[in-house]
């Protein structure tokens, strides 16, 4: 196999790759933060013990987890304009869909995290006069979050890779950048090889970074 | 309706493809190609007609799966990718007069000795998922009783790679796409386009249904471009001259079918071409 | 100070507490003992409404728990509680553990809370560890911090749920010492514990529970001095606990 | 918006609507095609799941052994396969590796995609298996060894039975994910549900109907897995322990 | 029976055991005590090679552990071990817990293993629970099953690592009773425990460890009878343990 990377000029990188990379990173960051916040709320609903909160939260999470993300993206993109009566841009649509979808996954992680905090901690919070919100916010969630950091990270790496599914609605992400460059120059093998390396470096770097961060914020036991 | 919406908002949303023969991106939000040039001319004509001093064009990349819903739901005002005008689609959307007639052909390796589709019995043929060529191939197989193995690339670059790497003996696809892939390949002399035309497809600008005023405005502009020879110039620019980003020449002369369509502007669907 | 009247509690159809009645006066030290699963932890948790109960009533300092108008968090802030497994907040430093509830619940300023917390920390003899995290302390030290944490809220009564049973035997002493000192200072205390030495030394009364019932509720001297007058179950329990 | 459900009864070449919706004698309706695509999706998923469970468990176990080299190998495996997007991995398996290792060309794309998807998922399963084993008290390993069981026997009889019980829920998610991720198989010419949706949508211009049908089938498949896993979870629940742990 | 010669062990750069030497004769009962973290568990785990060590040698029944030819699993099968947290296999019933290693390690038939296991279960008085799972038993019962499990392998020596410290005080007695009986029957035993009553009653020798070193290794009578002759650390430890 003769490989030809000569077309990979700085110009190509800046016009094809950088834009996609930025979008992927933005989308990942936004969906991660939004997803964790929303997911935590869903997890608290599911753990509340009140049927009128548990049932809708569980239904939402289970449905989202049973449908491929690309279908959710597409449905949201195609159907919401029909409901709203006006179109939503591909980007905005992607931000909203990813947040809603990832929330289902993050909620499962946060639920496990909350359950990993001993019940005695909740009792201790209450016993000191804290109310439900304070106990969750000051005692339980900080611990749940620290305990679950590695899993949250793994999910975020998946999320970063999944941003490529925005192809379905014509948004432009990192992988799309590589693919288009590959098609325009008709060098798919070379671009995919570079893509593999770039993704590996980013994702692996990310997991290293978080591993380091975790060592710093992990709970000393 | 679309014209008044354009006038009101001062913007028009153009549906574009990231990488098709007639419409592709150079990255950085730049979209170019034969159909895009045609559309830009159409839009500037419409701007003059509406008496606007400026009109912002928003580019909305579309895929073959979502382009029709996007035109239907109003996200896209004028779709300038490379969409085949056929009867099924006419139920959902409208088409402007045909701007280009695509011919489905076969690319093979130059040294393969294959010169006709009939030599492909028992061979492996590549084509791309989500294109009409797949169905064309199936029809052909059924009609002539030829049996060939099919492999489907996820996009044209993939399919071409199948041919290049020897996994497939032929690549059946729109002629313009074949020509472009060959022109930009590492060894353009190693491939050739052979054999009969498997199907003929009119390519047209796609518009929202039931908006005759807008369609008339677009049609008029295209007809004017044909008359003034501007369309032929645009064709020459994209099919016979070096094009970005690689400066390769596609080298696909104007076909008889396209000439005929220009001579007699119409929005007939693909099925009408097949009957002839 | 604490009035427990005919309290009963069920988990589903399983009755954990049956008709429990007792009261604790200001300055009194009461030890609760009994076999595992007899409902000691449950009883002590009902006192500051950590566990709801279905029948009867409890009042603390004259405030009824079953009154829907009672602000439970506010009441709990005035009742100190120490747990078997310490339940320090592992993600917070010792100082933060001591000040968190003072700031968030009592609304004290950070400085005020710190001053108060460090004073209590000094009292349990751990000032040097103020910047460590709970995980860096031994069990005995953690439990003493937990006591300091409860004390820094200026409680009117302290509840202890087996404060020494998760400790290495070597460390039991240091925690008991702090508790003895508290008792001598006149703190009202309700302690679930199996440390009979502690009960003998400082308690005024002993409550013995079995199967969710208060089986014995008598003075320390009656309990230890006259085992033959006790119920069969209590006598058996005492002999098992004291035998080895 | 109008629905056109008859489209599923249409013959795929002639475009005639067939009575009974199923084609006979070489005729194929879109419904026939849809069901066969579902079959491909399920076959790819099931086989990939087998591959993923096998390699994921193996690698996960290696990462908990006392041997440094095995741990390193396991870590490298996991990082390699989880940090490159699946679609890119598939491309490499299909287009790049065969040109480097000629024998790979002989493998049908079905086998390649099963392994590609299997290996990708094995990286995630290995994480879960490792976490499951490490969540057991250290004493369990000691207890097994102290009774004279060899290390493999300790894994087989003591650690793995509990570890797998603990990780049934995350494994369920992975099994559901594999169904969804199997859609990448279309990239290597497997006529599964996503390819069906792309192709049939293009041919019929009824994208919405096709997507709806495919979404429903994906949902049914994943949800069935979810129920089956729940059943397994209940079956293997150990008496006297909460939550099946 | 057991010979420990100049054993040293490091975790990275941290030395857990320093030059430990002692021996245990057939039929002897030796109690090991000392503060938390002093290396007691580590020492007892090196005896059946659950923890490797870097220097010195240990031999059990004449077989050297550091000899690369030694079949460690086979040796371990002949040494019974009981853990602080029981470590029964939670997914197996009591009977399965008792028979697993007999079948897989000793190669006994299922019937043989069952007969032997049930005999040991009877010995600890738990025959009625044979079909239950560990999670359905109390801590004391679980620990007795764990002892029966070790005994059913016909060990030549039994190692105990704080067998009662995770138990409710009420249940300590039932486990100690079983151990006392074993000692009286002449089993060779090495016990890490803080139960000084047990040590006084049945042990022949007491080993006191601190910071990874064997600080005292003397007869029971010397240890308890003459505290003033002991090292400062041991005396201090004894007073703490026995005070409450
Ligand atoms: N959340 C719960 N749901 C059901 N039953 C429970 C629950 N919590 C406790 N119980 C049961 O209530 C009974 C009393 O429990 P409690 O914890 O009060 O006992 P205890 O006397 O404190 O025992 P220990 O000495 O073991 O701490 C026990 O039988 C226990 O199994
Ligand atoms: N895996 C390990 N890695 C590093 N240090 C360890 C490890 N296991 C034990 N240690 C350290 O070795 C020392 C001795 O541990 P060991 O468990 O033998 O103490 P112990 O005397 O049994 O204490 P305890 O009474 O708490 O059980 C302790 O300081 C402990 O922190
Ligand atoms: Mg309790
Ligand atoms: Mg120990």
UniProtKB/TrEMBL annotation, chain A:
Keywords: Cell membrane, Membrane, Transmembrane, Transmembrane helix, Transport. It comes from the Bacteria. It is found in: Cell inner membrane; Cell membrane. The keyword Transmembrane applies. PROSITE patterns: ABC_TM1. Residues 21-210 form the ABC transmembrane type-1 domain. It holds the Pfam family BPD_transp_1. It is a multi-pass membrane protein. InterPro entries: AA_ABC_transptr_permease_3TM (IPR010065), ArtM/GltK/GlnP/TcyL/YhdX-like (IPR043429), MetI-like (IPR000515), MetI-like_sf (IPR035906). The chain crosses the membrane at residues 20-45, 66-84, 151-172, 192-211. NCBIfam families: HEQRo_perm_3TM. Belongs to the binding-protein-dependent transport system permease family. HisMQ subfamily. This is Amino acid ABC transporter permease. It comes from Rubrivivax gelatinosus.
Automatic annotation (TrEMBL), chains C, E:
It is found in: Cell membrane. InterPro entries: AAA+_ATPase, ABC_ATPase_HisP-typ, ABC_transporter-like_ATP-bd, ABC_transporter-like_CS, MetN_ABC_transporter-like, P-loop_NTPase. Keywords: Amino-acid transport, ATP-binding, Cell membrane, Elongation factor, Ligase, Membrane, Nucleotide-binding, Protein biosynthesis, Transport. Signal peptide: none annotated. SUPFAM superfamilies: P-loop containing nucleoside triphosphate hydrolases. It is a peripheral membrane protein. Its main location: membrane. Residues 2-236 form the ABC transporter domain. GO terms for molecular function: ATP binding; ligase activity; translation elongation factor activity. PROSITE patterns: ABC_TRANSPORTER_1, ABC_TRANSPORTER_2. Belongs to the ABC transporter superfamily. This is Amino acid ABC transporter ATP-binding protein. It comes from Rubrivivax gelatinosus (Rhodocyclus gelatinosus).
Automatic annotation (TrEMBL), chain D:
The chain crosses the membrane at residues 37-59, 80-97, 103-121, 178-198, 210-229. Gene3D superfamilies: MetI-like. PANTHER family: GLUTAMATE_ASPARTATE IMPORT PERMEASE PROTEIN GLTJ, MEMBRANE COMPONENT OF AMINO ACID ABC TRANSPORTER. The keyword Transmembrane helix applies. The keyword Transmembrane helix applies. It is found in: Cell inner membrane; Cell membrane. This is Glutamate ABC transporter permease. Keywords: Cell membrane, Membrane, Transmembrane, Transmembrane helix, Transport. It is a multi-pass membrane protein. Pfam families: BPD_transp_1. NCBIfam families: HEQRo_perm_3TM. It comes from the Bacteria. Belongs to the binding-protein-dependent transport system permease family. HisMQ subfamily. Residues 38-229 form the ABC transmembrane type-1 domain.
